[in-house]
């Protein structure tokens, strides 16, 4: 009797152990397989964008844009003969550590394509994570040259690059007759990329003169130092390439200091909050920016759909995120599989896929063949398309 | 040159207001209150909430409204400071110094992300903006709001100095800074005085927060972080624990930053400022006005 009980207990423990290990193994197997060859379940797309932190509003625009595309594609029957798309959004927080943690999370959840990436500095460290898992990345917003410098096969940028933005900026300076310029960045990868590139192009071109190329520390309130430096050189144009919070403060403080020249900002500063922060100095500020829904002709119907779905207006990078998901679906469909290598091949082969930025064909380094940058100007506290385009 | 001095003076007066709180608290209970920068942020957000709830304010009344909001925000942030001391520091009064320090870091994060959760992570534009006449003084451009804000800061500092030197509570603060046990034996209610110290220090930081919001026009939940570090630096330069040292240290740091960015370029400003701090600590660890054994406060 006694031995019998012991035996039963042992048996139960043994069975429990077998069950747990089996459960474990099953778990591991299934998570490994869902990325590769589950024939039926949903196809997961991962999106690491800022949900918290100072760039959180843009993250919301991107998430909604992507979700809109997912819903539309699912309504039309999904991909690969009826499989639904599923969007998994994790926080990037514009912070390298948070972005890496989130990238690991979406990779282990078995996503097939990554459609996120806003802050270049935070997106950069996530590249090797997706690369090791052989997951293609369609990056909708981050656009530092550093992202494609390493020549990773899985990285595709569908926003214009810093280089293309600089070309547009220079063309506009020449066309509007600005002969002297001050370049100011905030020392982040994205921002420095544009000033460095603009400086190089201006020097090579020779018709505009860089009077000042300086950096500020992000996150402060008082920028009187850079304002003093700008006032001392008195350039016709100040080109600010950082984000909108500091941009707004610098514009405001330049105005208070009596600066009479013009200010131009890069795409990281194009946000509805910039005119509010900049106050009286905002009117007439130029911006180099890829098209936003407001400035694209014929986007009214798309904007109406977006509003109906989320009860909010679309913003910067809503369209790019929307296109990133559509592009991912198209590539999966073309490849006929969810294998990373096949999708990358399909992406490279795409020619003339219609997007908001125009027909898509990737260059050999996986960037857009034309950047699609336009010049915006602030009028009555809002960014609108500038009359004069380069 | 005069522009540099003027800008340095203006930024320095913000640093000084915040440095005072650091210095007072350190002087009295030897605690580096790392949540102090976030009290400044809290002040800015309370001011924001008050101004928004008051609705549209005509531009002509903006200065008067600002003064009222300033006072109310000071009272609330002062109260918050007292509450923080009560909940996070007093229970650890007998604990090792490190434990209280970590508790302060914890309070700092709680305030930052608490505000982020309540008010949202997005930066806010302040409902009123101090815009005013600009005039040239000896070749420097100064604006009316700058002068008003500096007068307010100077007024607060003079009042504080009077309070500490001439009132009985001030005398009690100074005696606790010297020896809190002896003060207790002499019949001073140590806890009550510490509470007042936190109230005053936090109220000053709150005032700086509202002023920064109204002048610069943008607030966000992380705005207290860098300025908190800078104010701490200012307090150390001036001689931490010493009230006049904190005021002086704030102004000195303002000048160092202004001249540093002028001489070496904007990107080198913080390198220069903090190099000065290291140099200072090597050559004169007690700061400008601090002395090895002296009456603190």
The number of helical elements of chain B comes to 11
Gyration radius of chain A (Cα, Å) is 24 Å
The CATH homologous superfamily of the largest domain in chain A corresponds to Response regulator
User: What integer is the average pLDDT of chain B?
Assistant: 87
CATH architecture of the largest domain in chain A: 3-Layer(aba) Sandwich
| Number of E strands of chain A | 14
Structural class of chain B: mainly alpha
Q: What ranges of chain B have pLDDT less than 50 throughout 5 or more consecutive residues?
A: none
Order of helices and strands of chain B: HHHHEEEHHHHEHHH
Shape of chain A: globular
Helix content of chain A: 40-55%
Give a structural overview.
The complex is a heterodimer of chains A (390) and B (297). Chain A has 390 residues and is α/β, with parallel strands linked by helices. In chain A, 47% of the residues lie in helices and 17% in strands. Chain A contains 14 helices and 14 strands. Chain A has a seven-stranded mixed β-sheet with strand order 7-6-8-9-10-13-14, sandwiched between helices. In chain A, strands 2-1-3 form a three-stranded parallel β-sheet. A two-stranded parallel ribbon of chain A has the order 4-5. In chain A, α6 (146-149) links the parallel β4 and β5. Residues 14-37 of chain A have low confidence and may be disordered. Chain B has one domain (16-225). In chain B, 73% of the residues lie in helices and 4% in strands. In chain B, the strands form two sheets. In chain B, strands 1-4 form a two-stranded antiparallel sheet. The longest helix of chain B is centred in the N-terminal third of the chain and has 28 residues, at 2-29. The mean pLDDT of chain B is 87. Classes of the chains: A alpha/beta (390), B mainly alpha (297).
